[in-house]
Predict the structure.
Amino acid sequence: MATHKELDVWKEAIDLVTKIYKMTADFPDREQFGLVSQMTRAAISVPSNIAEGAARGTSKEYVRFLNISLASLSELETQLIISQNLGYSVTLEIFSDVENIQAKLYKLRNYLNTK
């Protein structure tokens, strides 16, 4: 099994964190402790939990941490929709990135569940 740094899904999740930080830099100051804080924490949680799960040593624990990553990704997606509804600048590319990462996490989880 590859280390987390060799996984495309981990690399893409790292890139998503960077995009979220850049995107939220343009949000109003009043959102600094609201949406911005929530979105950056949820985004950071995705690659962090992929890495932690990979380091745990068992497929069962890895799957548990992938589920946490998926939950954080769903949380982030919800916050992106709220941001979009509030008229903040949210690109379709970000939504596409979330869907891509989600699909890869599901595939990795399914693979580990068959081991």
